[in-house]
Design a protein that fits this description.
single chain, alpha/beta, 2 domains, 24% strand, isomerase
Amino acid sequence: MKTILIILDGISEGKFEQLNNMTPLEYANTPILDKIINEGIHEKTCFYPTNRDPDSLVCILSILGVEEKLIPKNRAYLEALAAGINIAYDEVVLRCNLVSIKNNKLESFNAKGLTNSEMKDVTKNTISDESIRFYHISDYRNLIVMKRSDEILNLVDMPPHENVGQSIDYMLSHIKSVDSLNDFIKNNRYKLNDADYMFYPWGVSEKTILPTFLKLHKKSCSCVCSAEIVKGIAKAMKINLAHLENSTGDTDTDLLEKSKAVLNEIKNHDTVIAHINGTDEVSHRKDLNGKIKFIEKIDREFLKEIYMNVGKKTKIIIVSDHQTSSITGKHEKGYVDIIENIT
């Protein structure tokens, strides 16, 4: 039996009084998803190990059957792998967000107020010494590659999307021990459109080896995704990556292109993984109404195309990797949705 696994990143969260005590997924108008539920099952589960925080790296690898002991601490290496950046064993990789600052506090984790082209232009002017290799990946996302050291490996993880509103001085306090990073931050602060921006390094990651999907499941697999972390997971696990022209890792993604890619890939593979990241991004922005509208768009432009055209003997599994709150903008612990058709 063939399987289409659809991961709707961060789509699950708690119930809202203003949504008649329903979750955004329950409240949204989703006739196709409702059909799949009525014909199959809708359950709740958790994908993160008890001693790990719920994030896409941990939860997606758990969904794919990777043992907890093999799941890396952070994801930057896999994002570098996705971007084709070579990392030596004596090097580490850090994620590096372009963030906005207001009143010396973290206003946004994603360069609020700048267009994607403006974000890219800012990265062209970064100043760093020879100890830092800086790479722009997409939008507000960047990577820093440095030589491994105990000081860097011991840096405290302080994810910007979990700390909006926090004092910048506090956010940077743990980085002061690494002179080159401290200098990089000081030398790359910008004022654009009357707003303040800076680069914030975090999430130290080392080179990682993961088991292949074929070895784990004895099945061929292809992946339809745009988010760098999922591309990196696919490359590390020797999963084929479908080519996409117009899809992104946000709500502006081309969902019809993704649905057509899924239908094309399932012809030649036992399993197709489809990942949609916009549900997570819109939740981080604390946009409840935007999340509901995007869920409805997924149903209308993505799920409908697949449901109407996939073979009857193909299993469709729709899951959320973790909860992302539209109120706090943070990943939350708790149960997530898993929906399957009955073939």
